[in-house]
Amino acid sequence: MKVITLGEIMLRLSPEGYLRFLQADKFCVAYGGGEANAAVSLSNFGVHTEFVTKLPDNELGDAAVNNLRKYGVGVKHIVRGSGRMGIYFLEKGASQRASKVIYDRSYSAMAQATFEDFDFDEIFENADWFHFTGITPALSPNLAEIVLMAAKTAKQKGLKVSCDLNYRKKLWTKEQAKQTMTAIMPYVDTLIANEEDSADVFGIKAQGSDITGGIIDKEGYKRVAEQLMDRFAFENVAFTLRGSLSASDNKWSAMLYDGKSFYFSKEYLIHIVDRVGGGDSFAAGLIYAALNNFDKQKRIEFAAGASCLKHSVEGDFNLVSVKEVLSLIEGDGSGRVQR
User: Which of the four, 23, 44, 197, 278, has the lowest number of CB atoms within 10 Å?
Assistant: First the structure.
């Protein structure tokens, strides 16, 4: 099994613990980004992964590459060149105070990537799956075209293609996202989204849900999945269903639709250590389960379980094993010490 992911890895700077930006006199360093997060998760599950990006040819770029290597992610298709390292600052929320993210990624090396940087015929050789998010095409018009070309090439070479819609209002407008993502969707087999993405990008909204009140109406999400399937003829549509009780406590579950049947995972009540990368860990779990031919119910249980565990891990990366996910979905969610 071989999975290719394409995106930007960034330097993450966070105040210690739950300090606010205004209180911080030092920052904790980590690395992360949607597709890099998915690659690390899959590597921890034992899957051969290759992460494709462009990084500055300096020590910060070296550190990002070494961080990926540490977790077994393939880096031979990472291009080095001019430009800067993308950065994001994270202030972790608690209780009723929301987390905050400040991006500092304009003119990054990846945002300035060109078609000549990537040979997708070579990159996709002997690969089984290609994964990307809606964040990457939002970074620049060039990257929007590069992602489209990559998705086309992957389909031509027989790979399965997945996209996590991941709308980010700080990166582009809803109109820009709709135009760009609509052009890419015909090459996508599995679409992954959350309770807001389909409304923001495609104008398809789940009725009857109140995410800020922790209320999820499953029937509303079924209708959204059906409309997405009708419009784009995906093989699968998967939703993460987050009920936000506070910044510290969420309800978490997921849904998978294959055009015939709906599959819902069990619901978890999670106390959050770090929620960044939760959706990426879900995508990785879904890809792993599909590559291993799990039945549809077990696929959504595995993906939701992997993402549930990610919320207990500091940093962007989901550092859990297949064994730990299987133990959770098979009933052991007690958190008791394993001896």
Answer: 23
Q: Closest by alpha carbon to 154, among 129, 132, 118?
A: 129
Taking the C-alpha atoms of residue 172 and residue 295, their distance in angstroms, rounded to an integer, is 37
Nearest of 284, 291, 221, 308 to residue 256 by alpha carbon: 221
Distance CA 40, CA 87 (A): 19
- Residue range 79-115, pLDDT digits in tens: 999 999 999 999 999 999 999 999 999 999 999 999 9
SS3 for the chain, per residue? CEEEEECCCEEEEEECCCCCHHHCCCEEEEEECHHHHHHHHHHHCCCEEEEECEEECCHHHHHHHHHHHHCCCECCCCEEECCECCEEEEECCECCECCEEEEECCCECCCCCCHHHCCHHHHCCCCCEEEEECCHHHCCHHHHHHHHHHHHHHHHCCCEEEEECCCCCCCCCHHHHHHHHHHHHHHCCEEEECCCHHHHHHCCCCCCCEHHHCECCHHHHHHHHHHHHHHHCCCEEEEEEEEECCCCEEEEEEEEECCCCEEECCCEEEECCCCCCHHHHHHHHHHHHHHCCCCHHHHHHHHHHHHHHHCCCCCCCCCCCHHHHHHHHCCCCCCCCCC
Confidence grade of residue 275 (pLDDT, cut at 50, 70, 90): confident
Which residue type sits at 54? K
Average predicted confidence (pLDDT) for the chain: 93
Q: Which two tokens stand for residue 291?
A: 């590559």
79 CB-contact burial (10 Å; exposed 0-12 / middle 13-18 / buried 19+): middle
Quote the CA–CA distance of 158 and 286 in Å, as a whole number.
19
pLDDT given at position 339: 44
- List the one residue out of 164, 135, 138, 160 whose CA is nearest residue 41: 164
In the predicted structure, residue 147 carries a pLDDT above the cut 80: yes
